[in-house]
Amino acid sequence: EVQLVQSGAEVKKPGESLKISCKGSGYSFTSYWIGWVRQMPGKGLEWMGIIYPGDSDTRYSPSFQGQVTISADKSISTAYLQWSSLKASDTAMYYCVRSWPGGYYFDYWGQGTLVTVSS
Amino acid sequence: QSALTQPASVSGSPGQSITISCTGTSSDVGGYNYVSWYQQHPGKAPKLMIYDVSNRPSGVSNRFSGSKSGNTASLTISGLQAEDEADYYCSSYTSSSTSRVFGGGTKLTVL
Q1: Please, is B39 exposed, middle or buried when counting C-beta atoms within 10 Å of its C-beta (0-12, 13-18, 19+)?
Q2: In the structure, what pLDDT confidence band is assigned to residue B2 with cuts at 50, 70 and 90?
Q3: Residues 79-98 of B with CB under 8 A from A
Q4: Which of A56, B35, B64, B110 is within CB 3.0–4.6 Å of B85 for a Cys-Cys bond?
Q5: What is the distance of C-alpha B102 from the center of its chain?
C-alpha cells in the first residue's frame, strides 16, 4: 500500500528554522516525484515545488523560490521541506504529494503537517 | 502566477447533476491534456478524483466525470449524494516556470 506519512504539527516563533518530513512507503521512492502544497487557513491549495529523489532534480514555484528548500534522502525514502527563518505568514497546512514521472497529477497525498508561527 | 478560475460555490439537490468549471489559458488548461481534479472534505487531505482531463483513478465513483473545451475544463458529478459535499480543486500543467497551478477551489453544497 502506497503511503506518504508526514511529521507532526509544529509551533514555532518568527525567525526560527524548521524542517518537516514526508516518508514514502509501498513504492519505489526514487521513481516518482514528491511535491509540496501549501494551504493557508481557510484558503485554497498552492503549488510550492517538487523533487525527483532519484537524482535530486528540484523545481520551485516562483512564489516560493528562495523562501523554502526542498530536499530528499533516498536512503530513508524521505523528502523534506525546510525554512531558515519562519514568518507568521508561513502558518499553514503543508501537504506532500506523489507525482508520476510522466504525469502532472498528484495521486497520493500525505496527511498534512500543520505549521503555526506565532510570537 | 495566477490561479485557475473556479466558481466559489455551487449547489445541488440529491440526485441532481452539477458541473464545476475551471478556466485557464492556452498556456495551461487549453494547451495540454493535464487537468486533474481533487476533492477535499473538511479537515482532510485532498483526494484525486480525475486526472488527464477525463480519467478516473481506480476506486473513484463513475458519477464523477471530467471534460475540457478550449481553455475551460469541467468536473461533472451526477446523482449527487450528501457525501459529495466538499471543496473541489482543479489543477493543470502550465508552460510557465511554475509548471503546475491550482484553481481557487469550489465549495459544493448538497441541499
Answers
A1: buried
A2: low
A3: 89, 91-93, 97-98
A4: B110
A5: 10
